[in-house]
Target: Acetyl-coenzyme A synthetase
Amino acid sequence: MTVQPKTAVEPAVHAPPAEIAARAHADAARYAQMHARSVADPEGFWGEEGRRLDWMRPYTRVKNTSFGPGEVSIRWFEDGTLNVAANCIDRHLKDRAEQTAIIFEPDSPEEPAQHVSYAHLHAEVSRFANVLKALGVAKGDRVVIYLPMIPAAAYAMLACARIGAIHSVVFAGFSPDALADRINDCGARLVITADHAPRGGRTTALKSNCDKALRRCSDRVKLLMVARTGGQVDWLEGRDHAYEAMAAQAPADCPPVEVGAEDPLFILYTSGSTGKPKGVVHTSGGYLLYAAITHHYVFDYRDGDVYWCTADVGWVTGHSYIVYGPLANGATTVMFEGVPTYPDAGRFWQVCEKHRVTQFYTAPTAIRALMGKGAGPVEACDLSSLRILGSVGEPINPEAWNWYDETVGKGRCPIVDTWWQTETGGILIAPLPGATATKPGSATLPFFGVQPVVLDDQGHELDGPAEGVLAIKDSWPGQMRTIWQDHERFAQTYFEMFKGYYFSGDGCRRDADGYYWITGRVDDVINVSGHRMGTAEVESALVAHDKVAEAAVVGCPHPLKGQGIYCYVTLMDGVEPSDALRKELADWVRTEIGPIAKPDAIQWAPGLPKTRSGKIMRRILRKIAENETDALGDTSTLADPAVVEDLIANRVDA
Ligand code: WT7
Model:
């Protein structure tokens, strides 16, 4: 049922469809009761929910967390031990050995899909784990995974978990340099890759990217290559190992290693507002429990469902909601190697029809791109299996929300707009399909155990309807524990600015119903197609070019990507600006970081607006990029106000 808004500014409210509410894991009353209990008695609530997992040694201590003052320290279930892979595989063998765990849908629709049963998953992961052991990988060692979206990516992650090694998945779209930085930062002793990665009808030479990256790494780092295409690769004897040859020798049995709940499961690099990407560390017990329980409730997963999250395992969404959450729940999860528009704009819907997908989870940027292709490709497919539609990665604009609801979901499928971050491990704010009335553009209400607050600039909590900065008051089990080898930076980035809170970096508004509306980042991080980019990273790539003297990068509105990358570039003396140079710089950034960082606009800036102390006034640059030049605000502290006139006159469109 849809209640029309009383005024144009209030969006429509969509109550949960009765047939969904009747069978869902939680209805409105249950949500309210469980949320209240989770906050009033976290020890009791999580102590009970922790039993969703199989523990080798049960925990006696549930929560031991402090956001300061004093040391920031986050520990959940700290005296418990378990194995994450055993929780995602072995414990399901009793009841669901023949059930499909993973459906692999290849890039090309011509290539047959693969159905991997839990029994097969067990054999593959065990064999993979034995190959890792044969290469000398032991508990606590770091392994970098640079693979396409193929089942081997999940096998490799779970194989690490099985032997207690720490994986760090690097998105296969990242450049050799970005890969090398991550290998070096986490001190990996092995990188797992494939020969080539097919995607959207093209291929990326992953092995060759690794060869380039490893030139910048210790020569002790080994390489393990999985064959995907069988294409030509260079080979370095001694360093390089072929997975298939080793797997043929490896036993299919590998006992899962006992790890502490607080032993790291993975490191995942993400961009911050300053400096190099941060190695976000997630540990084993709390993370897995939180991924599992959120997957269960937010997607209302039940036996027999076919759940599809279109993310890549290179991002946290792929970790929590393709691999760990679904498999911990004994679910059937789809892994899709391709892109939404290959071979045509109907691909997502064809895959939904083909595999009878029940939950479909994607990003607003994909929805907007497909919306642009009209209803035809959607209507050509039978989408009657769909029950729940999810969104993640950036705020979803109401037009896209409504199209998703009406054209894809035919008004029958609740939309779960899920707000979370790499750092949070799992979903923090989202509707539950049978419990929460939705409003297009709002992530709605907090998940169990989550206490969001809206803070003003001074860090005071605001009551009732309010707008400010989004922070979280107390810990939840899926929270990141530290930045790899930089606990100080962890404390400083997330707990310094607003004492006693986890600072999200996002702005938000809370309405009169207590619903949260995320308004976007308040720091120097931009969100390009749901991917996080630090403006500082793009700036340092630009200034590394020998024709560039200085650069400042901000986000600008972009119709498909949400935000685009807008660069102001000051050239070295004597260098002439030209369109050719623009292209050269855009390509340069693309090779330095990866295709996702390619600038959308480059404006030549003879000077940048600076304060008298030399600080770049990014606020002004953002306004110019947004084309809101009548709202520049106070420019009186500028060292040279004429600079701004020039920038306004020469702004470019993204
Ligand atoms: C940032 C986190 C969480 C997995 C994907 C991205 C933005 C994410 C939403 C949403 C509004 C959202 C935030 C957040 N974001 N989901 N549903 N509504 N904004 O993970 O790369 O760590 O990025 O993405 O700005 O801080 P990430």
Summary: Residues 15 and 195 are 49 Å apart (CA to CA).
